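Complex record, two chains
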Amino acid sequence: MQSRFYLSLMLISGLVLLMFMAFAGYRELAPEWKKYQKEYKELLVKGAKDENAKKMAKNFSVELQQLYLGDLKRVDRCTSCHIGYDNPAMANAKLPFKQHSGDYLKNHSVEKYGCTICHYGQGRAPEKDEAHAAIKATAHAAGAGAQEKQARKAAPTGEEHKVHWDFPIIPVQYIQSSCSQCHDSEFLKNKGGGKVVKGEEFFREKGCKGCHKLNSIGGDLGKALDGVGSQPIAYFPMKDVAGERNTYSWHKQHFVDPRNLVPESEMKVNVTEEEADFLATYVLSLRAEEVPKKYRRIRDIAPAAAPDGEALYKMYCIGCHTTGKESMYDEIFRRTIPSIKNPAFLKAVDDKYIKTVVTEGRAGTQMTSWKTTAAGLTEQEVDKIVSYVANDRPKDKPELFDVTKYKADTKRGEDIYKVRCALCHGKKGEGALGINLRNPVVQNADLQFLAMTARDGRANTPMPPFGKKGVGLSDQDLLDVVSYVKTLSKAKK
Amino acid sequence: MSSEAQDKSGVSRRDFLNIAAFGAAIVSALGMLAGMFRMFKANVHYEESLKFKIGKPETFPSGMSRKIDDKNLFVLSDEGGIYAITAICQHLGCTVFATEWGYQCPCHGSRYDKDGNVIGGPAPRALPWYEITQGADGNLIVDASKEVAKGTKYKFS
């Protein structure tokens, strides 16, 4: 009885083992690339024009192809399936046999460069799914519609993470991000690298560095962007990314609508779909690893002229202050961003004051300190920005306010403040529609400056003139109220 | 497993079970052994391929001789065609250099004539010639793993 039980057990396990072996044997003998190469061989034989070519085609040996790239520390086996990459006869063949497009391979021989240095993907994998490592979202088509997002949340799918690889194959729309590993933008401009060059331009002109550091220069509201292009997927919240869930889609969609992917994001962007493509391409070109020197073709070009005040303003300020002509309440920052090119403001302040604000920043607000040891601007650069901001200053001198003429009464000032100022600046000066009055720049400003501001208001902003020409407060009232404002930093919140 | 089934099954059925069970075990064991031997032969190695492109045929006009340094190879061309001779001395693997009369090894003085035959020194054998084929893109491909008979020259269009 017992021996029969063990016999059956042996039979069953033997059969299971056989099954597995047959499967393993099949996988070993009929890998994906072999199927493709056999098909390619048939194509070659069919397309042979003369006897000699036919003989050569028949001699084509089906074997795993490998590009060993010692200098790049890569092993690429892509050509095992993309076997027709260098065959002009395959120019119109279907994938994976199609010849490589363009004449890129003429100067980038596959033997020297391989494939993954530009295209990413897992070079060693001899199977399509693993080599491309494309993470397809299955439940929805590409696109970032709110409706889709809802649908996805309702029916989450578990199939999206079929193969995980940090650097899946890069979609062709962002492929130019690979070019700048070896080429300078001057070269790329005319040689098929227009997207990444445009992206770099936008990056400079949309004020990205106002919040993001690059090479340790820039603001600190956002993340530093050094090497962000080769940061693996795990660094990015992929939950709400539509279409393929990889860093490439993430960057693009994050430019279109940052808060869709990162709800707490304070990033300000206002770009079209196309511009988002350029910017994503540029950002993806900011890679951490460097290709070996002998591959790089970055020429010694004369350094571009140092940016002038306007260029610097665009680079670092425009993101928040836009044109600087109007102040506006910002929904994301939940505060008013002051208009720094407003003539009324410029009339009341001198360059030294602006420079102090730029170099020291405004503690308690989003305004960063831009000195060399913080955001990394040199003093000359700050001076250029200050003089650019100040070039809208009206010629006429402001009417001074003589603070010595009156004796300030802060108790009276408090009463006036509650009636006149608290609505916009908050009960304790914490700011709402108006700016925060507790911040150090206001608190450290002299009484005369504050009194003049209160008296004359700020044209083109919600701040009206409170002096005789406006609301009608007397000079004594004004002095009382600004003296009270100066005590706000000591008051409890 | 009722006793009735056992009665009906008789000896032959038990034999079948015996044979099937042992058969399956033995076949799978043999299969695994075969699989293990398969492991000895790798599909590819982690090293540079011995097959490599050297350029288009028109870059090797008749009468030219070029050393391809990083591949340790001489590519020569005459009326008979293009041919490739290794630059690795067959004695201890130094790189030979071309002279007026053939090839000279700098290490232990081996000397070869223009066809690679040994004419002096400790070299035990002649410099091998390699197969040249033409790839689909028109580039010539040398396969340093395939030696061909001395004097094999290739004509390409």
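Note: Chain B has two domains: 1-41, 51-148.
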